[in-house]
Design a protein that fits this description.
Number of helices: 3
Oligomer: single chain
Shape: elongated
Radius of gyration: 18 Å
Helix content: 25-40%
Distance between the termini: 30 Å
Strand content: 25-35%
Length: about 120
């Protein structure tokens, strides 16, 4: 039931409308895709006023499950394309994943690769 591949999850928090840039950068760097969640900022730097009414900017959270061997490349691509080195553009961080289930497309690819290897040997 457990996968033998080691994974990380890259959590990227950006202003609303920028998640597609993160997804595209991730894919170009080797990720299979990502999951976008909606959120809102509550930090001291997130608060703004519009006509004296306090507003909290909307955020998008991108979760990217990635083979640990590709984490650095994908994280760098996210930083560059998302301009995360600039203030106020967002943040990204990496968490190690202890266990995974349901990653069938990767399992199917591994089985097909093994089949091709055995086919080419014999």
């Amino acid at each position: 039931m457990e996968s033998s591949v080691l994974y990380d999850v890259i959590v990227t928090i950006v202003n609303k409308g920028y998640s597609e840039k993160v997804i595209e950068a991730s894919k170009k760097a080797g990720a299979e895709g990502g999951t976008i969640l909606n959120g809102r900022g509550t930090g001291i730097h997130e608060q703004a006023k519009l006509f004296s009414i306090q507003i909290e900017p909307e955020k998008e959270i991108v979760l990217t499950l990635i083979d640990r061997g590709k984490t650095d490349d994908v994280l760098k691509a996210i930083m560059v394309e998302g301009e995360l080195q600039k203030p106020g553009k967002g943040i990204a961080f990496v968490l190690e994943v202890e266990r995974t289930i349901g990653i069938n497309h990767i399992l199917n690819r591994m089985v097909n690769e093994k089949y091709e290897e055995e086919k080419n040997k014999g």
